[in-house]
Every structure is written in structure tokens, then in C-alpha cells.
Amino acid sequence: MPDRMPVAKTYKLYVGGAFPRSESGRSYPVSDAKGNFLANAAHASRKDVRDAVVAARKAFPGWSGTTAYNRGQVLYRVAEVLEGRHEQFAAEVAAAEGVSARKAQSLVDAAVDRWVWYAGWTDKIATVLGAANPVAGPYFSFTVPEPSGVAAVLAPQRSSLLGLVSVLAPVLAAGCTAVVVSSTDRPLPAITLSEVLATSDVPAGVVNVLTGRAAELGPWLASHGDVDALDPAGADARERPELARQAADTVKRVLRVPEDEPDWTRPPDIGRLRHYLEAKTVWHPMGA
Amino acid sequence: MATPTLPAALADATRDESSLRRFLHGLPGVDQVGVEQRAAGLATRSIKKAAKLWAIDTAISMVDLTTLEGADTHGKVRALAAKARRPDPDRPDTPPVAAVCVYPDLAATAVDALGGSGIGVASVATAFPSGRSSRAVKLADVELAVTSGATEVDMVIDRGAFLEGRYGQVFEEIREIKAACGDAHLKVILETGELATYDNVRRAAWLALLAGGDFVKTSTGKVSPAATLPVTHVLLQAVRDWYTATGELRGVKPAGGIRTTKDAVRYLVAVHEVAGPEWLTPALFRFGASSLLNDLLLQRRTQLDGHYSGPDYVTQD
Amino acid sequence: MTMWEYAPAPESRDIANLKAAYRPFVNGEFVDGGGEPLKTLNPATEEVLAEVGTANASDVDAAVKAARRAYERTWSALPGSERAKYLFRIARLIQERARELAVLETLDNGKPVKESRDADIPTAAAHFFYHAGWADKLSYAGLGPDPRPLGVAGQVIPWNFPLLMLAWKIAPALATGNTVVLKPAETTPLTALVFAEICQQADLPPGVVNILPGAGDVGAELVRHPGVDKVAFTGSTEVGKQIQRAVAGTPKRLTLELGGKAANVVFDDAPLDQAVDGIVNGIFFNQGHVCCAGSRLLAQESVVDELLAKLRYRVSTLRLGDPLDKNTDIGAINSAEQLGKIRELVESGDNEGAHRWTSPCPVPERGFFFAPTVFSGVQQSMRIAREEIFGPVLSVLTFRTPEEAVAKANNTPYGLSAGVWTEKGSRILWMANRLRAGVVWANTFNRFDPAAPFGGYRESGFGREGGRTGLEAYLDA
């Protein structure tokens, strides 16, 4: 018997800035890499998907409308708060992924640095991806990137924190809002990350995290009429073609992802950022 | 429809519908970003000590203490009238408010309750707040207010006609209401939240001034957004420009959404620096508000006592 | 009616944590400089604020060598992502100490605390924040796959925006992997030396940033030092030309941000009230001590009378006085010397027949103050239309057509900035296309953002600061 009985945390969903249980009332047991019970996670349903999309849509005008500078500050704040809970994340990642304590530390380091990397992108996207168009006529024409809207993200199944951050941060840096389905078997770091997001100036609804089964929730997101983009990274490779077909009905932007989960410790490029951006071209005459 | 007392250029503007349109559309535009920046910049003025106490007393004396609910009763209006006379019973040196503002059917009650106090009775009219009725009904509404003894009438303009570009109709209606007001002062509610752009607000303000409105007023309080600082800047600029053009001083009344002393002081700073110090009088500037008064009273106590007060020390009416 | 007088609302000078003495910062340490110490004044009271140690030639040499060592051993070898985190940390430290820095800046410079609080300090932090993000993204800057830093940057900055100009210089230099030796202006060294403290708090490796207070001779020494790979200067065109001559024939890279005589062009269809605000902001922001100040108002003849009437009323509401008072709009002129220059040029305006109008605002008896002044009836041939006054003095000229406006606006050897006021979008772009200026503001004026490049044409200098373009100045690409 321990001298003191620790207080265990109840892991819930993160929707619209609040931490509700699944509307279905369902939960499922989560174990560590060795099979020991860790906690019961909420088992999100299609109605939780519905609520999460509503929350993400409601948050979109505010988040996309804030200045790029402010979005950068908010993402950097996420890095600061995440760094402050470094030990907790390292322990959760080690338990979830069965890696050594040292490896877990370096994965958390990389996750913090990834937020920093994307924080620096918010106010540089337009200068790198935008353009003044030298059109042949008395017009000033320019092209600016704009966020697509609500993104559905099926987070990687293996990399519980770094993989999740690597797919989520570009959505936010681009100015989109997100509905994330966490890793099914390793969901706890995702919920703890939600606690970080909830306390680091990220407005309610900008990120919504559902724990549950990507295979069950993916189709509801892929076919949802109010979702603009889909990252199917966490879906089984065999299920992705069907998700892509369902997404076609509303002409969603579906990210092309490698068949196997990549090594998330490698430095990213801006592919994921670009995926969540539209290009808008403006023409205006020049004349006295 | 020309008004003989106006300078020639302005009289010309009201000659007919197309003159009015040309005039209103010839007013300089209002740059949204610029006016909002100016309003935010002036809002950083730091008003302290004696200047703050002066501002609080001035703001109290400018309040049109308002109740405009379907559930208003004679009792409610009497309570408000008592509050208007003696806003802070513990502090008899607290100035009374400018007026009590009610619906026309309760104007007589307010007149009775305020008899001899010198406090005005303002009545909303003209199918307030939407203004969607016939001219006859609107005039009857005004008549009820005036015969009940209201000293001020707060009318709403026909926003539908304004947005359709039928400026002549809006102009004529204000003129007729003004005539029906007799000696009562006319405040013209533009409902700026429905006009949507600052350009429209400026045009509507000039339309109201040309038609003889004594005050231009932002809002009914029933539409969001109600009064804002930048909208009030546009109105203050309009009355200043009117003064430059005619030598006449007309008033401004922001209404709705002004709840704190801090807000009120910001409005007074705008009055002081955009229109000018001449406008810092209840004759030319009013606040349409209900909960603002108690915050002013609390802050007044704080200034005088040197410590913070609490809501239980002012009366809830 | 009682007049409403705003009670004084001064910031406490205690917030500035003013010290009796400040010293140069070399290789991560504060050191005794070999130069004659200088006394820095509060221009609003003419009182001595502090004694500041200055550098001599051997201090310059030591600082450049420290910067070289830091460049070779630590800074250029650090991955961009690690450099980024230092810069983010500096940005945060500036934000955390913002109020202290604002009050100190106001004491040393004379600018209203409203401006140091709302413009100088937050924008300085923003420059570090913005450039932090670039440090690990230089391959996206369009300058090749792996652009390299230049080495040691020698930077000389002016007194008008002391900390902000420091940020404009140091942030891009460090983000791109260079190390720096910076000389703040003789009359405004204090915030730069607090910045040195911030570098210590951020654990910045020694030698990456070195700060050498002193007069022009220290700047000249720094610019000429053979160990400097890059020279960046902001200041007068006269000194800029000397520096360009000194650097000529050496392998040093050079960027210059010099004087200006910006035209602010108001058409008769402008949003007049906002144009008035923009004109006021354009010339009276920071007492007109702004190289890109809109010092020439070009008003269309059909609107000039109405515009001037509105302008005079608006200027008369500006509050001049104690820079520490939060309600002060116009603070003190930075030095007796600058005040003398302004007075001399204003006299020339009188003598050449322009019509002077001065705001009736009260002017304090002590300190260096100059009431906002508007000259109308100014002609292109007058000195006040051609020379940079660098003070709260506006020259009003008129034009009839857009072509004439462009011709008059461009009729100057300078080319830093310009303003256009009209509600007609196509005319804005047409004007922007023809105006010979590095920055054109339309229906606004004096906007600065780290994401937007800033710099001049012709005798206003070359090179840009800010944005992707600004990185070029510190990269070998």
C-alpha cells in the first residue's frame, strides 16, 4: 500500500473550450505499452463529432481574423506552457509509446520546438506563399493565402504527442480551426495537450480533441458538409481511399499522406501549412 | 421643402430629393480604420482626481435615465423619477440627471412625478424602436408624448427608407415630427447599428440636422451594436461641422451599452476633443442609459471617500 | 461653463529604475570604457539623468574582436532553431519589462510616454518576435537554399527611436546568424544599455551583442574597423554619405536609412477627418523626429481651405508638455542642438514669406519644447519645403492635378516615404506607382510593422529593414 493514495485524473473530450464526457456516455480502457491499465478514455461518438465541428466553425472567424502576429504569440505561448509540463508529458509519452525515459524526453523537446517552428510561420506565410502578380495591363494584382476553414485531423496512431503536434500545429498556424481524433490506443497525451491549449490563450473551439476510434469517426468527418479539409494520417491505410471518396462529395482538401507513419522527429517542410490555405487573387485598376 | 434659416448651400441641399442625395453623397467619406484608430487613441486619455470627479458629476447631469421595457409600470416610472431627483440619497450634493426617458403612455406619469424638479421628461415615439408604421401613427405617438407633457421627444428614423435611398422621405418625416413637437426638443435616433457603415452614419446625421433635429442619437438600445465610441466620433464631428457651417450648436446622444464610468469618461473626452468644450453640457450631450448611473454613483463615492464602495450602497430602482 | 482641465497623470520615474551610471557592454560584461564619460539629459527638464561610460578606439577593437569570436565559436554554429529561441526569449523579456523601458525611453528621449508605451516598446518586441521566426526558416527567404551570415555587423543608430531602432538593427542581424557591435546615439544611450542587461537575462552567449555608447567618433571608428563585415546606419543623409565614402573600396556590405522630406498628398475626395488625423500623426508623431515624417502636405487646391481649418482646430487640441504625463501628445525636442536647428529653419520660413500658424498650446518654460507649427503658402523653392526640419513643423503646398502632385512630391533628392489620401482606389495605386519613395501609405501614415520592409530611394538610403526583403541586408546571397 502506498502511504498516500494518488488522485487519478478523469480523461475527457475537449470541445468548445470545455472538457465534456462523450455525449454517448461511452468510455474505453487505455493501457500502457506493457498492457497495464492507465485510465478510461471517453469514447467519442458521431454526435461528439457534430458538436466539435459546430465549435470549430464558431471559432473560425475569430481565429482566422486575428492578426498573424497574435496567432504567432498564441502558438509560442503553447510552447511555453508545454515546456512547463515537460515532465508530465515525458511520463505519459513513455507510458503510451513504451519508449525509454530519455527518448520520451527528446520527443517532448521536439514537440515543444515544433510549436515554436510553426509559431514563427504565422506572419511569414503570406510573404513566402503570396505574390504581386506582374499582369500585362494597368492593374495591380496580388495573391494572398487565406485559411480554408475547419480541418478534420485524424492524428497519427503511434506518435502520441510529437505526431499529434506535427499534424495539429500547421492547422492553427494557417489560421484554420481543428477537430482532432487522437490516437485510439494512445490518447492520454492528446487530452493533456488539450489542457495546455485550454490554458495558453488558444480561444475556445479553435482546437477540439476527440478520443475514440478513427475508423468510426473518420467517415463522419470525411462526409461532413461543414468541414473543409481532411488529414487522414491516423486512418488505416486501407480505409483512406474510402475516406477520400466520401470527402469528394463536398470537395474537401484531402492531404496526401505516406502509407506508413513517418518519422516525426525529422524537420518538417511547409507541405502541411500549404494544405490548409487557399490562394486569393485580387485585381485592381491603376489610374488617376 | 427648403428651410429659409439655413445658409444658401445647405438650403439648396434640401430643395428636392436629388439635391439631398447629391449633398449627402458629396460629404467626405469616413475611413473606418482611421476613425476607429482615432477613437481608440483618445480612449487612452488618463482622467484622474479633480478632473475625474468633474467628469463624473457632469456625466450624471447628462444621463437620460431610461426605462423602455414592455413590463414598465407606473410604479417603475415613479421609482425612476425619484432616483432622477436624488440619485444618491446619502449625498445630497449629487447632481440630478438630465431627464427620464420612457414610452409615451407613461410620459404623463413621469411628468407628474418630476413636477417642479427641472428634470426633463423624454418620451420615445414614432413606433419606437422599429419605426415601422404609418406616418399618421407616428405623429399620433408624438402627439401623445407632447400632450402628456414630455419636454423631449426621441424619434426613430425610417431606416428602411434610408437604406433604400429615399432620403427625401426620411427628411420630410423628421420635419413633420419636429413640427409636431412644438416646444419639445427633438432627438433623432439614427439606429447606427442598422446603418452599418460610418458613411451612412454621417449622411443620416446630416439628414437629421438639415431636417431640424436638436440632437442626433445613436441607438434605440434594442439593436446591437448600440452606441460605440467611433460612431459617436462621427456624430460629434457632424455637429461640429454643422456649427462651422451655420453657427448653430446641436447635440449628440449616445445610447445603449454605456455601462461604466470608464466608458462615460471616454465619451466625455471625445466630446471635449472632437466637438469641443462647448459641448460639455447637458444641453448638448446626453447619455441614454440605465445601469450607468449607479456605476457613476459608486465611482463618485470612491473619489470622495478614498476607498472602493460596493453595489449595496447605491439604490436599486 | 466650467472648463475641463485634465489633472496631471504622470508615470512615476521610479518605474525606469534609473541608475546613476551606465557602462559599455562588451563580451557579455559591462566594462569601463576608455572614452570620456558623457552625461545624458532629460530634454524635458534639462536635468542630468545619468553618467554614461563611452568607448574609445581600443574598446571598439575589443568589442569587434569579441563579436568575431562569438560569431566563429558559438553563434554561426548554432542551428537556426536554437538561435530562434534566444530571440523569442529576448522578445518576451522586452514585453515583460515594457513599462520600465517605456518610462526610461521617455526620460532619455523626451517623447510622450503614450508613444513609448504604445509604439516604441511593443514594436521593438515585435521585431524580435518576428525575426525569431526567421532564424530557422532562412531557406524559405528566396535567397537560395542555404544563405550564409556575413559575420560581424557594426551598427550605428539615431536618437529618435532609441530602442526601436536597436531592434530594427539587432533582431535581423542575430536571426540571420551575425553578431553585432552597436553604437546608440550620444543623447539616448540608456535603453540600449538596459537591452544589454536583457541579453544577459536571456543567457545570450557573450560577444553576440556588444553595445558601445559614445559620440560620432565612436561610430566612425566602428565603421572603419577592418574586423567589421557589415555596416548598418540610420541617421542623417550627411553622415550617411561620409560612411558610404569610408566603406567604399572595402569588402564591407552597407545599408543606409537616411533622411526624408515626405509628401503627404491629399485629394479633394479624401476622407477629410481621417486625413486630418493622418496629417497630424504624420508630422507631429514623436515631435516630428521621424525620418519618414509627412513634413510636406500637398493639398489639392479645391480642398485646401477646408482642410487647413480642420487641421488647425485639430492641432490646437494637441497637448504639449511633460512627456511622462500619459495625456501628453507632444513631448520635448531631444536636444538643445536640435531645437536650434528647428528654430533656424522656421525663421527661414518666415523670412521667405510663408505664413506661419502656431498652436496656442502653453509651452513649458524649462526643457526643450517647440509648439506645433503649420506653414501655409509654402512654395517649392523655400527651404522649409526642401530641407528636413526633423521637428513639429508642417509645410503646406498645393496642387491642381494628380500629375502635378506626383511632380511636386518627387521633386526632392530624398525618397523615403509618401502618403496619399483619396477614396478612389485606382488613384491610390496610380500614385503609388509613380511616387519615388520606399514606403507609400494610403489613407494612413506612419505605420510600421516588422513584416513590412522599410527603407528609402535615392538620398534616403538603400537597403530595407523588416519583412523578407530585410533579411537580404544580413545574408550573403
TrEMBL record, chain A:
Domain of life per record: Bacteria
Q: Which Gene3D superfamilies match?
A: Aldehyde Dehydrogenase, Chain A, domain 1 (3.40.605.10)
MF term (GO), any:
oxidoreductase activity
**Keywords, comma-separated and alphabetical:** Oxidoreductase
Q: Which SUPFAM superfamilies match?
A: ALDH-like
What's one Pfam family here?
Aldedh
Aldehyde dehydrogenase domain span: 30-254
Supply the name of the protein. Answer: Aldehyde dehydrogenase family protein
Species the sequence originates in: Prauserella shujinwangii
Automatic annotation (TrEMBL), chain B:
Q: Which SMART domains match?
A: DeoC
Q: Which Pfam families match?
A: DeoC
Q: Which reaction does it catalyse?
A: 2-deoxy-D-ribose 5-phosphate = D-glyceraldehyde 3-phosphate + acetaldehyde
Please provide the record's keywords in A-Z order: Lyase, Schiff base
Query: What EC numbers are recorded for this enzyme?
Result: 4.1.2.4
Q: Which domain of life is it from?
A: Bacteria
The enzyme's main class, written as a single word, is: lyase
| Pathway as given in its UniProt record | Carbohydrate degradation; 2-deoxy-D-ribose 1-phosphate degradation; D-glyceraldehyde 3-phosphate and acetaldehyde from 2-deoxy-alpha-D-ribose 1-phosphate: step 2/2
Q: Name one GO molecular function term.
A: deoxyribose-phosphate aldolase activity
Q: Name one GO cellular component term.
A: cytoplasm
**One example of a Gene Ontology biological process annotation:** carbohydrate catabolic process
The UniProt record lists the keyword Chaperone: no
Matching entries from PANTHER family are given as: DEOXYRIBOSE-PHOSPHATE ALDOLASE
Which family is it part of? Belongs to the DeoC/FbaB aldolase family. DeoC type 2 subfamily.
Indicate what this protein is called per its UniProt record. Deoxyribose-phosphate aldolase
Q: Which organism is it from?
A: Prauserella shujinwangii
Automatic annotation (TrEMBL), chain C:
A GO molecular function assigned to this protein is: oxidoreductase activity, acting on the aldehyde or oxo group of donors, NAD or NADP as acceptor
Report whether S-adenosyl-L-methionine shows up as a keyword of the record. Answer: no
Q: Which SUPFAM superfamilies match?
A: ALDH-like
Q: Which residues form the active site?
A: E257
Instruction: Supply the alphabetized keyword list.
Output: Oxidoreductase
- Aldehyde dehydrogenase domain residues are 31-476
Name the InterPro entries for this protein: Ald_DH/histidinol_DH, Ald_DH_C, Ald_DH_CS_GLU, Ald_DH_N, Aldehyde_DH_dom
Organism domain of life: Bacteria
Keyword NAD attributed = no
Q: Which Pfam families match?
A: Aldedh (PF00171)
Family recorded in the similarity comment: Belongs to the aldehyde dehydrogenase family.
Q: What is this protein called?
A: Aldehyde dehydrogenase (NAD+)
